[in-house]
Design brief:
The structure holds 2 protein chains of 2 kinds.
Chain A lengths: L3 E7 L2 E7 L5 H8 L18 E4 L2 E4 L12 E3 L12 H8 L9 H14 L5 H7 L11 H10 L2 H5 L2
Parallel strand pairs in A: 1-5
Antiparallel strand pairs in A: 1-2, 3-4, 3-5
Helix pairs in contact in A: 2-5
Chain B lengths: L8 E3 L4 H10 L5 E3 L5 H6 L7 E4 L9 E3 L3 E5 L4 H6 L1 H6 L1 H8 L4 H6 L2 H7 L6 H7 L3 E6 L2 E6 L4 E3 L2 E2 L6 E8 L6 E8 L7 E12 L2 E10 L6 E2 L1 H7 L6 H14 L10 H27 L1
Parallel strand pairs in B: 1-3, 2-3
Antiparallel strand pairs in B: 4-5, 5-10, 6-7, 6-10, 8-9, 11-12, 12-13, 13-14
Classes of the chains: A alpha+beta, B alpha+beta.
The structure holds flavin-adenine dinucleotide and FE2/S2 (inorganic) cluster (FES) (2 copies).
Chain lengths: 160, 294
């Protein structure tokens, strides 16, 4: 066995740790950093519940060996709220029934966050594509799409 | 059960040169890992055999798309997102851009690489049929140097390729020949964005004076390797697209492919669907001929 020294930032905070280099980023977040907002569903890249942003890009953390996150800037669901105040996206999920059991919700929000960071004003088709890698067994998706749609800046929306 | 992470070693060389040197020292020992969307799945289900991995993720020598007058070159480390974002690929090689757009959902496209898709060598992989109809060449690199071969010669048999121990895929090159007017690709799978294909057909073609002047067809999931359907092409070349020619082409496709039964589908279903996809392409090809006449 070989242990790797890893440094990265999560939600703006720097971390240094030691881990087997192939350890899944998902497990490092949950076990080593106690950031349990990121969930495991399938562990095979199919469900998106482990979604995080790595250098601004959406990834499934169950398929990222931690060595490949060396030096990265990571954003997890814990990083969305600001000083205890919910982000707009979180607020809209709350208001529009975007979460039921909640297991898919962190991943859904990270996928939505990634989408909105690339495209401030996505159409419904684009929201569907952006979230297509995230499975939900509760909501039937409509309320999730609606929550994301509501999170789009109202100023942006009048121009579509 | 998931593999034990403690049993694996992984290194991340700072340059392609370093990676190649490491591979040259003990080529049978190290396995490259790029985006990990195949290998990390294998780890997850306890089936990752290689115990020593060399990470290629983030190597700038492998992650690029660049156009010259004659060709566009795509580094093996380019992700499907990189491919979708490239304007020239979208314009001149739309079938590859489309294949990239349905290779899993966004998170998978952000990590999965073209090199990984090719070397994993699944008969169901989505990018090979597009590469085949565009007559791609593939560039291989080792500590000893590089070599370039037609991509059609890369796959030898089920999950077997010409890659020598210690050798990596460096890039894929697509010739910027004149774009044929009819460009067709269709993937039939279970779940739109995510599922591995049951059948995929890619084809390009042109009519001249009511006859098939040029045609190239390739398929995934119809045989051990992704391959051109040369027999079917031969039946079509120089012919008008009459009902009997279309029928002969369907028969040629069925005789030169060997679809199988597996967990995703049955041989019978695949054969039927593949022949129907071919016919859909031929309808578009025939229609392009009508348009040209008016
Ligand atoms: C949820 C999900 C959905 C998917 N959907 C699809 C789909 O629809 N269509 C499809 O075709 N695939 C699909 N895949 C499979 C996978 O994403 C692709 O095959 C991808 O291109 C693999 O690339 P990678 O860089 O992640 O490969 P890795 O897992 O890093 O490597 C795969 C193989 O390639 C080798 N390798 C990688 N780079 C090189 C190189 N430069 N030189 C030599 N060898 C190399 C590795 O050693 C390994 O054997 C899916 C996967 C998942 C998890
Ligand atoms: S747990 Fe990572 S995609 Fe399902
Ligand atoms: S809210 Fe339960 S899985 Fe989505």
């Amino acid at each position: 066995m070989k242990i790797a020294k890893i440094s990265f930032t999560v939600n703006g905070k720097p971390y240094s740790l030691e881990a087997p280099p192939i350890k899944r980023l998902l497990d490092v977040l949950r076990e080593d950093l106690a950031l349990t907002g990121t969930k495991e569903g399938c562990g095979e890249g199919e469900c998106g519940s482990c979604s995080v942003l790595m250098n601004g890009v959406l990834v499934n953390s169950c398929l990222v060996p931690v060595l490949q996150a060396q030096g990265a800037e990571l954003l997890t669901v814990e990083g969305l709220a600001n000083h205890g105040k919910l982000a707009v996206l979180q607020q809209k999920f709350l208001e529009h029934g975007g979460a039921q059991c909640g297991i898919c919700t962190p991943g859904m929000m990270m996928a939505a966050e990634a989408l909105l960071s690339r495209n401030a004003n996505p159409k419904l088709e684009e929201i569907r594509e952006g979230l297509a890698g995230n499975l939900c067994r509760c909501t039937g998706y409509m309320k999730i799409f609606e929550s994301v749609n509501q999170a789009i800046d109202s100023a942006e929306k009048t121009t579509r | 059960m998931r593999s034990n992470a403690n049993e694996y070693a992984m290194v991340a060389p700072a340059s392609l040169r370093e990676a190649l040197q490491l591979l040259a020292q003990s080529p049978d020992e190290w396995t490259p890992i790029a985006g990990g969307t195949e290998l990390m799945v294998a780890l997850g289900v306890g089936r990752l055999q290689s115990k020593k991995l060399v990470s290629l993720w983030g190597l700038s020598e492998l992650r690029y798309t660049v156009a010259s007058a004659n060709e566009i070159s795509i580094g093996a480390g380019a992700t499907f997102t990189d491919i979708r974002n490239d304007k020239i690929i979208a314009q001149e090689f739309p079938l590859l851009a489309l294949a990239a757009s349905w290779t899993g959902a966004i998170a998978n496209q952000n990590r999965g690489t073209l090199g990984g898709n090719i070397v994993n060598a699944s008969p169901a992989a989505d990018s090979p049929p597009a590469l085949l109809v565009y007559q791609a060449e593939i560039e291989l690199v080792s500590a000893g140097g590089t070599r370039r071969i037609p991509y059609k010669d890369f796959h030898l048999g089920y999950k077997r390729t010409v890659l020598a121990p210690g050798e990596l895929v460096k890039a894929v090159h697509l010739p910027r020949a004149e774009k044929l007017p009819v460009q067709y690709i269709r993937k039939v799978g279970t779940r739109n964005a995510m599922a591995i294909s049951k059948v995929e057909l890619a084809a390009v073609g042109a009519m001249r004076s009511g006859k098939v002047a040029e045609v190239r067809i390739a398929a995934a999931s119809l045989q051990e390797i992704p391959a051109r359907l040369l027999g079917t092409e031969a039946v079509l070349l120089g012919q008008p697209l009459s009902a009997s020619v279309v029928d002969a082409a369907r028969k040629a496709l069925l005789s030169e492919t060997k679809p199988i039964d597996d967990i995703r589908s049955t041989a019978n279903y695949r054969a039927q669907v593949a022949a129907n996809l071919l016919e859909e392409f031929l309808l578009q090809l025939a229609a392009s001929s009508d348009e040209a006449r008016v």
